Amino acid sequence: MSNNLSSHFLLREDVTFLNHGSYGACPRPVFEAYQAWQLELEREPVEFLGRKPTENMRLPREILAKELGTTAENIVGVTNSTTGLNIVAQSLDLRPGDQILTTDHEYSALEKTWAYVARKTGAEIVVVKIPMPLETEAQFTDALLAGMTDRTRVLFLSHITSATALLFPIERAVAEARHRGILSIIDGAHAPGQIHLNLETLGADFYAGNCHKWMMAPKGSAFLYARPEVQNLLNPLVISHGWTTQSKDPGARGAFGNSPFVDEIEMQGTRDPAPWLAVPAALKFRAENDWWAITDHCSALARETAARVAEMTGLSPLSAEQFRAPQMAAMPIPECDPLEVRKILFERYGIEIPVHRWQNHHIARVSVQGYNSRPQMDKLISALGEIFGF
């Protein structure tokens, strides 16, 4: 299966690429659709950017919204999850004494985002330490509920964590936040395409996710979701043609006929929208190749690989099986210089994989996508065994 699927991708043949989780990898047919959009733009830029922008941008929103269990007026294309989450974080009217509740597993770029917001507003960041190893949903949710106070204004969580590759059971915490009047903001960078998502059922106020990772769209394609009831809280990071002084109540129309939420974020001057316009091609590729079945195959290979590394090292996993990301595994390895190990894996063995330290754990995070194979996992395990003397 993997040999056939690998032919769809543009990855270098001399590199064993086990790091889909960082930036993704775009299949050839999707990349060709992306280039076709770029060519159309260059052939008549005035028509493309001046007369057809709303029409062109709407179709990806409609198709993606259906995939995500919401409507096209509730999502808007952004370049990456970090941008989408910055729009939310920097829009909120936080004040001294307000609390932002989060966990000790968050992505470093967003830790910096909230530190910036706290510095500007005087709000306080409260970091909850998630019990490890994570073995029950109650461990996770109870820790968060214990951190909520009458000053908590924001609950910020990763859906799938980056450093620790955990699938957080966020549903009950999100529901409790809604019950208490706390805004829930979810970093879903790794979730779309790796798990089935229904944003309306989940019920988070704001959710940002990447299309360029596990959906395999081109780099620079992501989305921001906002419930209609809270869209009026948002302001774009850039004020441009989409800005409107009209009412931003639910049902209002923006400058280009969409919701103000969509128009103000979508219409921000000259840029290359081709990555976003290629999202339908990525979803079509996934459907044509039964990618959810491939996801199941990859998940099994990720679990097997993590178990083999744990058996070799004698180090316990970070969580019970149900809380591990389907196609990623954060595998504890012996204490080391992570940058040096990563360098050796790449330069000596041709293996591209992140190696890092998280708290007191040293981790090699493997990603398994349809182009990967068991022989590649054998190569990784053999390389780790040689490096650490097993």
**Gap between N and C termini:** 31 Å
**Helix content percent band:** 40-55%
Mean pLDDT: 94
Globally, the shape reads globular
Helix and strand element order: HEHHHHEHEHEHEHEHEEHHHHEHEEEH
Kindly provide the name of the CATH class of the largest domain: Alpha Beta
Decide which structural class fits the backbone.
Answer: alpha/beta
What is the count of distinct domains?
2
Our estimate of the beta-strand percent is: 5-15%
Contiguous uncertain segments of 5+ residues: none
Main sheet summary: 7 strands, mixed
**Do you know the CATH topology of the largest domain?**
Aspartate Aminotransferase, domain 2
Multimeric organization: single chain
CATH superfamily of the largest domain: Type I PLP-dependent aspartate aminotransferase-like (Major domain)
Task: Compute the CA-based radius of gyration.
Answer: 21 Å
Structural features, described:
The chain is α/β, with parallel strands linked by helices. It has two domains: 125 residues, Aspartate Aminotransferase, domain 1, CATH 3.90.1150.10; 255 residues, 3-Layer(aba) Sandwich (Aspartate Aminotransferase, domain 2). The protein has 16 helices and twelve strands. The strands form three sheets. The protein has a seven-stranded mixed sheet, with helices on both faces. A three-stranded antiparallel sheet has the order 9-12-11. It has a two-stranded parallel sheet with strand order 1-10. The longest helix has 23 residues. It is globular and about 65 Å long. The mean pLDDT is 94.
